[in-house]
Amino acid sequence: MNVVVIGLSHHSSPVELRERFAFAAAEIPDALKSLRDSGVACEAVILSTCNRVEIYAATPLELAKAIAELREFLLRWAGTGTEPLASSQRAGSTGGGAHQIAGEEFYAFVEPHSLRHLFKVACGLDSMVLGETEIFGQLKTAYGLAFKHGHTGARLNKAFQRAFHTAKHIRTHTNIQRGSVSVASVTVELAEKIFNSLGDREVLVIGAGDTSEKTARALLSRGAKNIVVTNRSFDRAQALAGELGGCAVPFDDWAAKFEKIDIVISSTSAPHHILNRAKLEPLMKARRQRPLLLIDIAVPRDIDPEVNFLENVYLYNVDDLQGIANDYLKLRREEIARCEVMIAEKVKSLLVVESSADFVDEGKFRFSHLRKSAQSGG
Amino acid sequence: MAWFTDRHFFLLAVAFYGLSTVYSVFLWRMGFRRDDHANYFLLLIAFALHTAAMVKRGFSVAHCPVNNLYEATTFVAWTIVAAYLVIGLLPRLRFLGAFASPVLLAIGVFALMPALDPPHGLQPEFSGALVSLHAATILLAYGAFGLGAVAAAMFLMQQHDLKFHKLRAVLSMFPPIQRLESVAVWLVFAGFILLTVGLAAGRHLPRPAGTPYWTDPKVVWSICLWFVYLTLLVLRRLRMPSSRGLAISFIAAFVILLLTFWGTNLLSPLHHP
Q1: By CB distance 3.0 to 4.6 Å, which of A42, A197, A352, B57 could disulfide with B65?
Q2: How far apart are the first and last CA of chain B?
Q3: Residues of B with Cβ-Cβ distance to A334 under 8 angstroms
Q4: Would the CB atoms of B169 and A193 count as touching at under 8 Å?
């Protein structure tokens, strides 16, 4: 029995297409059952996230047939039927955004590459944000769901358990997950380099923008004590404060709250600086010169760069934060080769390579082969 | 093995301080991204050798080895490394070692100058438990001031990196700057208490007839030092100097202490009869 994987991801297809193939969590047990009932797979796991839809299957069928049937299954599930590949579209999909399925959007792997792919996914090496850990949890949930409903067996159990183990090993022994690669997480990291703990820190959000909200949420998740929101539109400030469990203050009054504030996230659309050296100096005195982290993610900038020359003030604008995130990403990329060597070793130790390699070139299944053979009547 | 004296042990300890300094440069070049186990281990070996040197000297002179400049200087270095090894048990504060080892190397090389270690007489004229307490507490205080200065240096580097958006600020395994500042202040406070106890104990020591205590140059110097550290701690309480100003003051005070320690000893009839 060979472990195969078929799917589509952010590497191969746009979101307009991926969303058509996505499985709701409640649908997955039925989908797995129908997959097993059809005889194409003895064991199966469906992974459906915003960035990928994949079926991992242990199949008794001949590999080309198994992959063709899995692909048909995906198309059927997405409501595209079994029409010629180039023209199939989901019923109800309308407008210019509707994506044509050319076939190249799917990828498929057989052993040992299917296992290597699984391991890479678990480690975050195949993710949109290289090295991110969310996929590890999503993969565990997908596997847990299949396991709970009895759709996994010896082969997939072993493969997934080993993938999770490898992901943990790689996380511990490489820098692939080191550092922050988003503005929000870089902000949290900076705060943790300045303050003893985030537990008793108060955060002021000036301007109720999307990135401010994400950053404030990231700080809250790391234990920030309180969020104060201010915005020119007080209603929006109240709405965001309500969502974040903080309090709202009128835009003209935020300076009055400044004494207790440790971190400021500013993202207004003001055409001029709303905080400058002359305004901040007395506020710092009132704060008894405690450290202050200023995050200016507005363009044009809300905070005069001059304030960074004040003692105990640490100012970062969006370019500074993005620069740090990019540097982290660069560091992660430098780790890919190391991770792949580790994965190859782990896959090798897991697998006694079966005689499947003669069917596909280097384990990567090419749909063009299938189309050619279909055209030639094979 | 009779030829292998306490000074040989100390020489070996200084060699390990040197190795630690070299490794610290490597850590610095790598952006302090690796855990500092290796440096901690090097300083642990140096500490063992250093302790062996002091114990050997202590047994040979039959009292706490703090009776000449060599012994006093090595005692200061020993207290710095001992305090570091305790603080370094906290992983993030282990990097203090990278900043401490150059200071230890400098003090060690200075202490090895032969002129600082003249041959002992049979027994110092004034000795006993109180003398040992006086000397040990004052030298421990200097050690605490030294490690406080080291923490202050680490604070300055981290603060500079954060101010100027250096990637090292987030990549390094340094603790947050607020914690570094607290560690520096607590070390200086501990040093201040020890200095106070040491000075008070010194007042009650037997001394040669006609030699005043409070006007002895070394005592005057120590009292000045006491006032300097008291002022810094009071100002810190009032949040008068900035964190950066305070860190620079801690370093400056310790550098002045090191530079004047030898000279005031030579001028003192009580300490250099």
Answers
A1: B57
A2: 34
A3: none
A4: yes
Other Cβ atoms closer than 10 A to B9: 20
In angstroms, rounded to a whole number, what is the distance separating the alpha carbons of residues A298 and A208?
11
Cα distance between residue B19 and residue A69, in whole Å:
65
Say how far apart CA B230 and CA A57 lie, in whole Å.
73
**Chain A residue closest to B165 (CA)?**
A320
Q: What is the distance, to the nearest Å, from the Cα of residue B212 to the centroid of all Cα atoms in its chain?
A: 28
How confident is the model over A182-227, as pLDDT tens digits? 788 888 889 989 998 888 899 999 988 788 888 888 898 888 888 9
Distance CA A226, CA A20 (A): 40
Q: Residue type for A306, please?
A: E
- Determine if residue A250 is left, alpha or beta; phi over 0 gives left, psi from -120 to 50 gives alpha, anything else beta: beta
For position B49, what pLDDT does the model report?
93
Question: pLDDT exceeding 90 applies to what percent of chain A?
Answer: 26
Q: How far apart are CA B147 and CA B87, in angstroms?
A: 10
Distance (Å, whole) CA B4 – CA A359? 75
Q: Pick from B101, B110, B47, B103: which is nearest to B73 by CA?
A: B110
ipTM over 0.85: no
Are A196 and B178 an interchain contact pair (Cβ–Cβ within 8 Å)? yes
Q: Is A42 a catalytic residue?
A: no
d(CA B164, CA A118): 41
Using the beta-carbon criterion (under 8 Å), do A327 and B165 form an inter-chain contact? no
Query: What's the CA gap between A103 and A74, in Å, rounded?
Result: 12
- Residues 266-295 in A contacting B (C-alpha not used; CB under 8 Å): 288-289, 291
The DSSP code for A256 is G
DSSP state of A22: P
